[in-house]
Amino acid sequence: MSAVIDLRSDTVSKPGPEMRRAMAEAEVGDDVFGDDPTVNRLEAIAAERLGKEAAVYVPSGTMANLISVMTHTRPGDEILLGDQCHIFNYEVAGAARLANVQTHPLVNRPDGGLDPAAVRAAIREPGSHVPRTALLCLENTHNRCGGAALAVSEMAALAAIAHGQGLAVHLDGARIWNAAAALETTPAEIARNCDTVSFCLSKGLGCPVGSLICGPRGFIDEARRNRKTLGGGMRQAGILAAAGIHALEHNVARLPEDHANAGRLADGLRQYPAFRPNRPQTNIVVVDIVEGSQEGWLKAFRDEGVLAVPFGPGRIRMVTHINVTGAAITDALGRIERIAGARPQ
Ligand code: TLP
């Protein structure tokens, strides 16, 4: 059979030969002692690119969000977040279990944003019966909202409400580089109104592992302590951080290619009555199945060597990334034509 086209996530991307060479040649030290020059360099580059004072390198996006929530809050606090966001849906309730906070979900708008009035209304008046509302979490691009890139003006309005009531604002910017490409701005501009931002190296940027949290120096010092608490202190992590530096230097400019590929994939799928895809702003195609079953289509795709994932009832997701070329998208659409053109299920 011809090669599998893996569109399950941009997390499946594999490091290429140049990234592997950078990793093999990395200068390393014990990062828990602060001795790893490559990690230190990656953290300095990340802080600079995100427009924040300092940064800390952590193993995953999930840990980046958990550490951020832990560092912004005290046990028993409440955090506001979108009902479709990653922290609420896909982080195994870590905020509740390990940061000991109550999550208060607000309905996400299709653009990944929140209703400002709903945010205002959810912030509690201080009182002896109620939790302290301590933090607002935003996500950009928004995964479950089909990779939507939320406008900076929308973020600014939400952050102003939160800050006005003494809340901090954390941005889950796992795919902030995709957001920056789509909005034709910089990640620093997107993160400007947020106190802290996390972003992933292991998604569109093509690294095997790693995320960063960026924010004020005092916050990052405390985040480093919380990273150690969670077992996320790594030793000669420069081998991994080198991949991150390579990615920030070489893999950012090509992201519009992934977005164009996602657009073409969605346009192709839209030709079939069975599929109702979004109009992707970035690299995430979310398809509502309107004829046949989700499982049936996923299996039919898989049998043709096209991998997608279930994404809620009657919905599948396909994500473009650095290992999927324009030719592979053409190939994928050809394979889909063989199944969807022949037999709507
Ligand atoms: N998302 C993964 C799955 O967990 C759903 C994916 O395949 O998209 N924030 C956002 C917005 C994310 O999409 C993800 C990963 C994370 C955080 C967590 O990153 P990792 O996987 O590094 O823990």
Question: Care to describe what's here?
Answer:
The radius of gyration is 20 Å and the shape is globular. The strands form three sheets. It has a seven-stranded mixed β-sheet with strand order 2-8-7-6-5-3-4, with helices on both faces. Strands 9-10-13-12 form a four-stranded antiparallel β-sheet. With 345 residues, the chain is an alpha/beta fold. The chain contains 14 helices and 13 strands. It is 41% helix and 17% strand. Helix 7 links the parallel strand 5 (133-139) and strand 6 (168-172). The model has no long low-confidence stretch (mean pLDDT 97). Ligand TLP binds at residues 9, 11, 60-62, 65, 86, 90, 139, 143, 172, 174, 200, 202, 211. Residues 9, 11, 60-62, 65, 86, 90, 139, 143, 172, 174, 200, 202, 211 line the site of ligand TLP.
Summarize the structure.
The chain is 41% helix and 17% strand. The chain is of the alpha/beta class.
Task: Tell me how many strands there are.
Answer: 13
What topology, given as strand order, has the largest sheet?
2-8-7-6-5-3-4
Nearest-integer average pLDDT: 97
Number of helices: 14
How big a fraction of the residues is strand?
Answer: 15-25%
- The proportion of residues forming helix, as a percent range, comes to 40-55%
- Which class best fits the helix and strand makeup? alpha/beta
Largest sheet: 7 strands, mixed
Tell me, what's the shape? globular
The end-to-end distance, rounded to whole angstroms, is 23 Å
Task: Return Rg in Å.
Answer: 20 Å
List SSEs in N-to-C order: EHHEHEHHEHEHEHHEEHHHEEHEEEH
Which small compounds were modeled alongside the protein? ligand TLP
Query: Spans of 5+ residues with little confidence (pLDDT < 50)?
Result: none
